[in-house]
Amino acid sequence: MLPPKSYRRRYSLYTRAQELDRTAPLSSRRQYTPNSIRRFSTTSPAQHNDLTPPKPGEEIHLTIIDKDNHPTPLTVAAGDNLLDIAQSFDLDMEGACGGSCACSTCHVIVESQDMYDRMPEPDDDENDMLDLAFGLTETSRLGCQVKMSKELDGLTVRLPSMTRNLQKSDFEAKAKEKERESEAAGG
User: Fold this and answer.
1) Percent of the chain whose predicted confidence (pLDDT) is above 70
2) How many CB atoms lie within 10 A of CB 151?
3) pTM to 2 decimals?
4) How far apart are the first and last CA of the chain?
5) Rounded (10°) CA dihedral 17, 19, 21, 23
6) Do 94 and 159 contact (CB within 8 A), yes or no?
7) ∠ at Cα 101 (97, 103), nearest 5°?
8) Distance CA 66, CA 70 (A)
9) Digit-coded pLDDT (tens) for 120-157
10) DSSP notation for 53-75
11) How far apart are CA 67 and CA 104, in angstroms?
């Protein structure tokens, strides 16, 4: 009994490829060693700042007021932080350190003292970074450190008019210094 037609076709193509490989000069033949065979696997692509949609009945309402004083009402899930939320909705919050509490570019101002009091106290790292923030107030927090919870339902935060990215300004200062040095050397 003969194998199915599709199998015979694949087998004949495979044997033809082997024959062609045997007739090729030794220098151009494919060498099949355990190291030359690569195993390839894929996983689903991770989305940057991919937020989990809130389950029905578990929505948390948040309003972010941007630098131009335009409020953006949002519905989010518990556990998301303000930085990820703002970036997912294309709001102008930089987050230069990627949410690792190493900069102050995700600085937000909580509008209500009552809501601010409901939040966990900022830790020492956050307070150190807040000291570098532009327009610091009594209700300032870093967006990467504020995780949404049911207690914060109805939270309103304002983005400051400016942020201070020390890394960026350091690079700009160095570039200006080099420019001055090259002008002095050339002129």
Assistant:
1) 67
2) 13
3) 0.63
4) 91
5) -150
6) no
7) 55
8) 5
9) 999 999 999 999 888 899 999 999 999 999 999 999 99
10) PPPTT--EEEEEE-TTS-EEEEE
11) 16
- Cα separation, 85 vs 148, in Å, equals 10
Tell me the average confidence (pLDDT) per consecutive run of 10 residues in the chain, 187 residues long: 55 57 57 54 51 88 95 94 93 88 93 96 94 92 95 96 68 71 76
Neighbours of 140 (CB within 10 A): 21
Please report where in the chains the tokens 């050397």 appear, as a residue.
185
Task: Yes or no: say if 107 and 143 are a contact pair by the CB < 8 Å rule.
Answer: yes
Q: What is the DSSP string of 81-92?
A: BHHHHHHHTT-S
CB neighbours of residue 78 within 10 Å: 17
In angstroms, the CA 63 to CA 89 distance is: 12
- Spatial distance between the Cα atoms of 93 and 108, rounded to a whole number of angstroms: 9
Q: What is the pLDDT of residue 156?
A: 97
Helix residue ranges, H only, the chain: 5-23, 82-88, 113-118, 124-130, 166-186
Question: Which of 151, 170, 156, 184 shows the shortest CA–CA distance to 78?
Answer: 151
Please state, in angstroms and rounded to a whole number, the distance separating the CA atoms of residues 99 and 92.
15
Question: Residue 160 phi/psi, 5° resolution?
Answer: -65, 160
pLDDT of the residue at 180: 82
